[in-house]
Amino acid sequence: MKRKGTGPDGLVIVDKPEGITSHGVVAKLRWLAGTRKVGHAGTLDPMATGVLVIGVERATRLLGHLMLTAKTYEATIRLGQTTVTDDREGEVTASVPADGVTPEAVDAQVAELTGEIMQVPSKVSAIKIDGKRSYARVREGEEFELAARPTTVHAFTVHERRAAVAEDGTPVLDLDVTVECSSGTYIRALARDLGAALGVGGHLTALRRTRVGPYAVESAHTLEQLEEKLEVLPIAEAAAAAFPRWDVDAEQARLLSNGMRLDAPGLGADGPIAVFDPDGRFLALIEESGGKAKPVAVFVG
């Protein structure tokens, strides 16, 4: 039986558990909210845990804009083994002892992978090639290459280094790291590229997303908690947290609601601006263009 929604449309910040797909979380939230109009911003692999931003009802229209924000991950990289998926869920394709890798060598290569870089995504990513997902092509045994694409790694910090021995007896080195990056950065690819640069191979053994834009894991809810009580961040609060704010007067609000273009507020924002009426109601997302407020998405009317 479908469960009736218990909150207004808005965002649900989920602390995704390991072993479930992002689509699986969406399906769960559709049942909890009692609506089919549910979507997510920024997919997490089944192996990964942490912040997954879910939009319910009108807030699904915010998600495409939220995907442009910065993200933070806590991860563990294993040096000394390469896998077909660039993470621990794939078959090991090569093992090279990593006990000779020095901290100085790691730090030097981490620095090379920080800043504006060109990154080749993992082949098991969801990128489409001629309309077909890359991971589907891998499963079917196709041979292909993905093009490098620009991305930004704002910070790549190694916190701890631990020597270990893999199941096949290879001496490996595990690195606990924090990565702050732009959307579209693949942490598995960072692990792969770090290992390759050090000559020993590497893959990801753990991944937890701790922040997506302004939404942190401290404010996220587990699926068990959401089953007890569906916590929805109202759309106005969600927009105020994610975008620069522009409060308009009643006449401006009326004109905007009727599809009229307003003079730009002159905030100089690089991206969408959230517009609110005198009562604090969220009206629209706009962008400043040619001195005018160009509507990106209108949420009233």
TrEMBL record:
The keyword Transmembrane does not apply. GO terms for biological process: mRNA pseudouridine synthesis; tRNA pseudouridine synthesis. Keywords: Isomerase, tRNA processing. Its EC number is 5.4.99.25. Residues 243-299 form the tRNA pseudouridine synthase II TruB subfamily 2 C-terminal domain. It holds the Pfam family TruB_C_2. This is tRNA pseudouridine synthase B. The lineage of its organism: Bacteria, Bacillati, Actinomycetota, Actinomycetes, Kitasatosporales. The gene is truB.
